[in-house]
Structures are given as C-alpha cells and as structure tokens.
Fold this sequence. Notes:
The protein is an alpha+beta fold.
Amino acid sequence: MAITDWPEGExxxxxxxGQGTQALSDAELLAIFLRVGVTGKxxxxxxxxxxxxxxxxxxxxxxxRAALTSVNGMGDSKYAQLQxxxxxxxxxxxxxxxxxDALTSPQQVRDFLRLKLGGLTxxxxxxxxxxxxxxxxxxxxxxAGTLSQTSVYPREVxxxxxxxxxxxxxxxxxxxxxxxxPSQADxxxxxxxKKALDIVEVRVLDHFVIAGNTVLSFAERGxx
Length: 224
C-alpha cells in the first residue's frame, strides 16, 4: 500500500508536521528523505530495508557508495543527498560548539563525535582545541591507523595545541570493533598526553571513546 493511502495521521510527513520530529521512528524519518519507494514497497518499507542492511542510520550514512547504490531504489543521486545531509549535520554541530562552552553542552560534543567517528572502519584519533572559555577553536583528526590500533605522538599534539593557542583540549578516538570500553593502552596514552600538555599549561578536559552509537567519557568514569 502506498503511503498516500495510509490514514493521514500515520503518514510520516503529516506526523512530523503535527507531532514533531521526536514522534517519528528512524524508518519514518528516512522515508521522508527518500520520498518514494520502489515497486511493491513504500518509502517506509525501503527505509526499513536500509536499516536492516546497514544496522542503523549511522551505518547508512557511513556506507560506501558501492554498498548503498547496490540497494534497489538507491542510486548516485540518493547517495550524494545523504552525504550532503550528514555533512550539514556535522557542520551545524561544529558551529554550535564554537559558540558554546563545551563543558555545559556535553551532548553536542557527543553528538558531533558520534557523527564524525562512529561509522569509521579504521581507528582515528581526534583532538578538539578549545579557548579559555571552553569553546571549540578547531578540530583535527591527527592520527589514523588500522582496524584496532593508532600510533599517537604527544609531541605532535603539543605542537598543534600551541599552533591554535589552545587553553584546553578534548581527545576522542573510535573503536571500529564496536566495543567502547577503554583499554589500558588508552588510559596510559591519556596520562602521557596530560603530562606533556601540563608543561605548556594546556588542560585536558576529557577523552571520549566512540564505538558506533556509544560514546564513553573518561571524565565520567573517573579516569582523568
């Protein structure tokens, strides 16, 4: 049955306009973006197929062009549109972090890092550089590695912090394996970076580990 044949209150677009975005499931939100389905399937059905295939919205956004366009109903146009939506979301969050205290809006930081690192298939170490009011000056992916390991050099982190005249930093790295629990190596690295940055009076506010949609904070765990 086509979505236009559904009761008006159950149609995703009308539901969003009447009840707001929070009332919609992931499949319904995705269906609004897709607009149309394929023969025998509504846009909601196609959205559910995509979520089953890639596991989550984040999985869809981070799917390769080849993987996404192999799904019936998804072509280069839809792939390009999805990438544009994803990048706009990241940039919007980045803009917000530049005007707000990162410590008083931690959910924005988490959302940004989840969007930036959650779907990557290799490990990446990122640093957010902050000013004296804890607003983000810049963010850089300083190191990248394999599926399970990244080499991080404290001297390079210190050099970039001085380049931005940062007063504080937040570290983040992803675990492509899907397990957000920090390793002993992660804890040792954090302490080594703190010692190196203490010398130049740059504070380390937190270190986040991202695994898919899970974001773990070292500060909340008492590991700082």
